[in-house]
Amino acid sequence: MHNVVVLGSRFGGSATAYWLSKLFERREITVTIVDQWTLMTYRPALVRVAAGHPAQADNWHIPMVRRYQRAGFRFIRDTAYQIDPRAQKIHLATHPPLPYDTVFVATGADPAWEAIDGLGPHHGGVCEDYLARQTAYALSKTAGPIVVGVGPLYYSGSPVRLRASLDVPALEVAFLLDAWLSKHRRRQDIPITVITPACVPGESLGPKSQAILTRELERRQIQLIAESKVEQVGDSHITLYPQRVIKADQMIWIPPYHGSQLARRSGLDDGWGWIPTDKYCRHEKWSNVYAVGDINRSALPKLGHIAMLQAKVAVHALWAAMHHKSAQPFTPFVLHVIWTGHGRGLFTLSDILYGGKRDWVYFGAPASLAKTAFNASYRFFSGWMPIMP
Questions:
Q1: Residue 160: predicted pLDDT
Q2: CATH number listed for the domain at residues 2-36+78-110+259-322
Q3: Tell me: the pLDDT tens digits for 94-103?
């Protein structure tokens, strides 16, 4: 049988496992999933956790392993240290080397906190459950300015050009904080500022969404400092180039990102930590190595929907190759909803970033309800939705 290994068990890894279970007979392949956690932390919900609801963090730990076991897959709790594409083996931290015929790499990108002088997880964040919980608890003591910071994205050679690591969750948490503070009658005393290296809010979205976000930031008196270059971060201040100091009683950071150390150690990256792939998400040199989600350089920004699309394309490509069929290439587009608080949301369906012409948006209560419903469904079905993109 064909030996398949999936590295990672979040959006991309889970969707990869789903399609492997749907397309292949059990007698055709063996599947092993490797991840350091048995529970997936569902990151899209962490913005609500950070915005004043710390207890909700525990609600978003999803048990993925049971789904894999029901499908007849093997799960190894470990960390992949290096992939050897010549020997077709994966070196793990605590288990013996794991052989493969095909490997799907969905381990994500690595934060680069150290890229900004003085910056660290202790300043607050929203991308991991412990950071979101810590940030929410700190809000109860916050009496002064709140700064939501977005770090730069370090990469080269991607089809798209972005400056910010990912400003969408930063804007989302700023809006939710505004609503939470208003509800508790504290908003007028606490200014909120968003700093980003991007030129416009919602850099990864289309121009229509960017216009709505700009309008909402102004209407709700959330200051936006665009095209910012952070030189240094202290305990209660941020220094921007040239010589501008922003005071902060509380910070919330989306850190810089610089690709993957795993990809670098394995010699599979493009020199910046991102895996270069063809239109089927296959490595440009090693055809039995697929890259899904954040680690794939073909479609920044890194959103859960794009990871799920890449998983579908990659597994279908493997199935087509093994069954002498043709496969559909990866066609990226942005499908995303931002909670903006007060029961409203911003829905975006756009391929402008990738050279297309679609740019459809909707701003209102149904968008917020749709995101809430999707999140609840993803948790209920442990990532294996009845309808997958």
A1: 74
A2: 3.50.50.60
A3: 999 999 999 9
Query: Rounded to 5 degrees, what are φ and ψ at 306?
Result: -65, -40
CA distances from residue 294 to 96, 199, 276, 282, 315 in whole angstroms, order as listed: 26, 22, 12, 14, 17
The ranges assigned to domains in the chain are 2-36+78-110+259-322, 113-257
Distance separating the N- and C-terminal Cα atoms of the chain: 28
User: CB within 8 A of 124, min separation 6: which ones?
Assistant: 131, 134, 135, 138, 250, 251, 252, 253
Domain boundaries 113-257, corresponding CATH code? 3.50.50.60
The CA-atom distances, in angstroms, between 312 and each of 207, 240, 285, 296, 370 are 28, 42, 21, 14, 22
Residue of 65, 94, 78, 86 lying closest to 7 (CA atoms): 78
Spatial separation of the C-alpha atoms in residues 95 and 214, rounded to whole Å: 50
2-36+78-110+259-322 and 113-257: identical CATH topology? yes
CA distance 31 to 323: 18
The tokens for 143 are 């009496």
Alpha-carbon gap, residue 384 to 34, rounded angstroms = 17
Q: Give pTM, 2 decimals.
A: 0.95
- The structure tokens listed for 213 are 């976000």
